[in-house]
Specification:
The protein has two domains: 13-85, GMP Synthetase, Chain A, domain 3 (2-Layer Sandwich), CATH 3.30.300.20; 89-155, Ribosomal Protein S8, Chain: A, domain 1. 41% of the residues lie in helices and 23% in strands. It has helices at residues 13-23, 48-52, 57-73, 87-109, 120-130; strands at 29-35, 38-44, 81-84, 113-118, 136-142, 149-155. The strands form two sheets. A three-stranded mixed β-sheet has the order 1-2-3. Strands 4-6-5 form a three-stranded antiparallel β-sheet, with helices on one face. The longest helix is centred in the middle third of the chain and has 23 residues, at 87-109. The chain is elongated and about 55 Å long. 20% of the residues are buried.
């Protein structure tokens, strides 16, 4: 009698997504690359609208599901980013446009401007943009929607120098 448990082998993110697409009868191809040390999957499909969903909700939920599958199999699995038909780039451009418009208002009037509620990755895009800005900062704040927070763009507070 063999009492050895099977050895867990890492799952391939591309294979997981291809299996899900096949199961859902969504035709498409998946290309895998690495961005910032993490897997990035780009899906090309004639049913892009169906896969992206309203405001990207479906593609973001697919990404969440794939990451849950991978991390359940291996807790050290890197987080996978999934995009379809350059939706993520278009979304990032729109989010940054809104943030830059808000930043102009903050610079002009000096009062903080709140954006959102936004998903984590959208807030990260904004925070990354303002990270090196010497005048303004972007701070996450709790929102009403579960899992989503608002982001406040405000004048950066000067840190007092210890004497």
């Amino acid at each position: 009698m063999n009492t050895d448990s099977p050895v867990a082998t890492p799952l391939d993110p591309k294979t997981v997504v291809e299996t899900i697409l096949t199961t859902l009868a969504i035709p498409g191809t998946v290309e895998q690359s690495v961005i910032d040390g993490a897997p990035f999957l780009r899906i090309t499909t004639p049913d892009a609208g169906l896969l992206i969903g309203k405001r990207g909700q479906t593609i973001y939920q697919l990404q969440f599901l794939v990451n849950r599958i991978l991390q359940r199999h291996d807790l050290k699995a890197p987080r996978v980013t999934i995009d379809c038909e350059n939706h993520r780039d278009q979304q990032n451009e729109e989010i940054l446009r809104q943030a830059k418009d808000a930043a102009e208002k903050v610079r002009r009037w000096g009062e903080a401007v709140c954006l959102g509620p936004l998903a984590t990755f959208d807030r990260q895009v904004i925070q990354k943009h303002f990270y090196t800005d010497r005048e303004l900062e972007a701070i996450s704040e709790p929102g009403e929607e579960t899992g989503k927070k608002k982001i406040m763009i405000r004048v950066r507070h000067a840190v007092p120098v210890a004497r």
